[in-house]
Amino acid sequence: MILAVSGQKKNDAQAVTDAAEKLRLAMISGEKSALESLILPELTYGHSGGHIDDATEFVDKLVSKKSDFLTIDITDQKVQIVGNTAIVRHHFYATTADLGKTPGDVTLDIVLVWVKMKKDWKLLARQAVKAEKKK
Fold first, then answer.
1. What CATH number corresponds to the domain at position 113?
2. Is there a domain that residue 103 lies in?
3. Which of 81, 97, 122, 130 has the fewest Cβ atoms within 10 angstroms?
4. Against a cut of 0.85, is the pTM above it?
């Protein structure tokens, strides 16, 4: 879902949606160049358990398969554009096999902060929280 109205905001919201999809695919593939092309060097990447990765740690964990996503499904995505910044919220469901371990399941709610740099959207911040249990 895109929460934008004006023509430029609609175009930006679609570009952010596209960048978020590229990030999802890069996190699954663990392809270093794809990951690095989507993030800023100042990236702060917060995990639901409290650990915070910088850009180097984020990329290294995915490339080395220390963090290994077999699947990532995104639902209920909302994009809000504020100037050259985009706030993306979504529900994140993944199957993992970190360091070759038996697959596990991860269910999180995520907020991403993207910044427009020239014509590209780059990830500046990400924070995950454990998904609220549905009543």
1. 3.10.450.50
2. yes
3. 130
4. yes
